[in-house]
């Protein structure tokens, strides 16, 4: 099957809503196992207390084994998430949005997680490439010089042919290097890093361990984590309303930097506030995390060619994962002054 004409209107191609459903399911699969492990953190604390080297119930060998498996999930997540966002960055912004919404609906446990991830592999390999709108965008990216979609095109039954327009206009295949893309979009990259560095420095560790006085008992941490996830999901859908979508680069940076006021807010609320204020703050943390993530990821690729959008999506995911790593590393700072 030849390349689809670039002059075609993607909004008229069949399969848009089917592609959105598949993207939502793939978003689920991306973080199913990772979020399952994150959500049952208290289980690991019970199984492996801090004195595991001496009298821990789980044993040092089992602990190291789980750390290794968790690391393998991290490597797999980085590959899948980077590949997916890069792939969707040169398609409709709605695909990224529903994909990231799907990443929030993944708070179940391991057996279901493993089955669902296998299902997502099959969907991505055999269903997603055959949707007309996906063929269109991959064909368009290939016509602009992308070398990373040839296998994807072949999976959908499309085989790239020489583009006559490219021979007449050599600039058609010119693209910015990854380094140039990074420098031109450093603000977006840092935005992604800062969003997740702040969020993961608070959620879920601080919310599980240092939430102040309350009357909900053992349910309190679960309520906070549930509220975070619910409002994070809501935040990812808000940009669907165009008048509420923030696209200004300066506006996004200011909003993201302003979120760091949540650090003293959480500290003083845990020390002096009641559970109502903590639930409110946690909800706001989730709302802004989801909203700003979608705004950045859907705004950054605009104005670039398909191959550039693909590479930019990979760059943004790299900084997102770097922010997650920084956040979980900084999480221990909340323990200062508590016997450490």
- Portion in beta strands: under 5%
Structural class: mainly alpha
Major sheet summary line: none
Overall pLDDT level = 77
Radius of gyration: 22 Å
Portion of residues within helices:
55-70%
Low-confidence stretches: 1-7
> Which oligomeric state applies?
single chain
Total DSSP helices:
16
* N- to C-terminal distance: 64 Å
Spatial shape:
globular
Annotation, overall tally of beta strands: 0
The ordered H/E elements are HHHHHHHHHHHHHHHH
Describe the protein:
One of its GO terms (cellular component) is plasma membrane. Its main location: membrane. The chain is mainly alpha-helical and 340 residues long. The protein contains 16 helices and no strands. The model is unreliable at 1-7 (pLDDT under 50).
Topology, element by element:
Layout (H helix, E strand, L loop, with lengths): L15 H24 L1 H7 L12 H30 L3 H10 L7 H18 L4 H12 L6 H6 L8 H5 L9 H7 L1 H17 L2 H5 L9 H19 L11 H10 L3 H11 L2 H25 L6 H25 L10
Subcellular location: Membrane
Keywords: Membrane, Transmembrane, Transmembrane helix, Transport
Main location: membrane
Q: Which descriptors apply to this entry?
A:
340 residues, 16 helices, single chain, mainly alpha, disordered N terminus, 0% strand
Short description:
By secondary structure, this protein is mainly alpha-helical.
């Amino acid at each position: 099957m030849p390349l689809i004409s670039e002059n075609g209107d993607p909004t008229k191609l069949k399969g848009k809503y089917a592609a959105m459903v598949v993207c939502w399911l793939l978003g689920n699969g991306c973080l199913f196992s990772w979020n399952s492990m994150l959500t049952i953190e208290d289980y690991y604390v019970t199984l492996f207390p801090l004195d595991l080297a001496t009298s821990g119930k789980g044993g040092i060998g089992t602990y190291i084994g789980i750390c290794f498996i968790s690391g393998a999930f991290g490597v797999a997540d980085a590959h899948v998430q980077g590949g997916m966002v890069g792939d969707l960055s040169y398609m409709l912004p709605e695909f990224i949005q529903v994909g990231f919404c799907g990443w929030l609906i993944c708070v179940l446990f391991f057996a279901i997680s493993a089955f669902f991830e296998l299902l997502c592999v099959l969907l991505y390999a055999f269903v997603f490439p055959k949707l007309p709108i996906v063929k269109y965008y991959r064909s368009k990216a290939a016509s602009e010089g992308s070398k990373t979609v040839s296998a994807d095109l072949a999976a959908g039954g499309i085989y790239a042919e020489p583009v006559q327009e490219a021979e007449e206009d050599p600039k058609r295949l010119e693209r910015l290097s990854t380094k140039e893309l990074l420098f031109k979009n450093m603000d977006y990259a840092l935005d992604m890093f800062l969003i997740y560095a702040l969020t993961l420095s608070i959620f879920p560790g601080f919310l599980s361990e240092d939430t102040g006085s309350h009357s909900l008992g053992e349910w309190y941490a679960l309520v906070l984590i549930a509220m975070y996830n619910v409002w994070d999901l809501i935040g990812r859908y808000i940009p669907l309303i165009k008048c509420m979508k923030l696209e200004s680069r300066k506006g996004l940076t200011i909003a993201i930097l302003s979120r760091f006021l949540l650090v003293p807010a959480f500290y003083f609320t845990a020390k002096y506030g009641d559970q109502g204020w903590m639930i409110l703050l946690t909800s706001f943390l989730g709302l802004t995390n989801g909203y700003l993530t979608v705004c950045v990821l859907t705004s950054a690729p605009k104005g670039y060619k398909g191959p550039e959008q693909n590479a930019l999506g990979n760059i943004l995911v790299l900084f997102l994962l770097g922010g997650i790593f920084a956040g979980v590393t900084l999480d221990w700072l909340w323990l200062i002054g508590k016997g450490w």
